[in-house]
Amino acid sequence: MFSNNQNTSGKHMICDLTNIKNTELLNDNTKIKELFDNICKKYNYTILNRMEHIFEPQGITILYLLSESHISIHTFPERNYAALDIYTCREYENNNIYEEIYEYIIKEFKAKKEEPIIIDRNFF
Amino acid sequence: MFSNNQNTSGKHMICDLTNIKNTELLNDNTKIKELFDNICKKYNYTILNRMEHIFEPQGITILYLLSESHISIHTFPERNYAALDIYTCREYENNNIYEEIYEYIIKEFKAKKEEPIIIDRNFF
Fold it and tell me: What is the DSSP letter of B28?
């Protein structure tokens, strides 16, 4: 797992999800929002607003505006690919929470487990 | 400038803006949207939706949902810091457009010029 591993209060995880076996999820905005809602509930991220766009003929973008920053997803069913980001500001001591979230996301999408990029954003 | 430099159609630039001299911009959602609108107009990114949140006592989040993916900013006036991301999908041959955008952002915020992270997102 790549991490620049600075002391920080902001962590940004970049997940490029490939080889997805749960392909229905790529076209299901309701289920993706359930997934995001579950993450926010479990880890106490506060959802302030959401927006989404359903592309024709396929593909979904969903953006969550959080008290802690944001979550985004862009799905590309035609490429069996989704680009998912979680960026939250909190006093993190390590990457454990993000590693748990990554495992959950991989499990739900039935995607290939790779190395997400976790970037400690500057926060002076 | 860090770049993983794969062949890709998706580029994600992560800008941690520090030492900002144009501190008024950190609290001016209208001017930040003008800045984003200018970028989208100049580089032909299509804005599908926007959302924003003004935090109390300070700080702004603005998210742009684009045809090409998204733009986000989270400002922290109390830390003279802003976290800005631009992620767009297009057939890029190099980082030139993002380097131009970065220069424009730095100029507008009068921020310290650093090395933004530019990540080529997988796009199979």
Answer: -
CA B39 to chain centre: 9
Contact A124 B85 (CB under 8 A): no
Average pLDDT over residues A99-105: 97
* Minimal CA separation from A14 to chain B, in Å: 9
Q: If you measure CA to CA, which chain A residue comes closest to B76?
A: A123
The ipTM value here is 0.92
**Model confidence pLDDT, tens digit, residues B66-88:** 999 999 999 999 999 999 999 99
How many whole angstroms separate alpha carbon A121 and alpha carbon A11? 6
Q: Which single residue is written with the structure tokens 């300070």? A: B58
Contact A50, A62 (CB under 8 A): yes
| Residue type (1 letter), B107 | K
First to last CA, chain A: 24
Tokens standing for residue B15? 């800008």
Number of structural domains, chain B? 1
**Residue numbers of the domain that contains A74:** 2-121
The reported pTM is: 0.93
Question: B11 has which bridge partners?
Answer: B88, B120
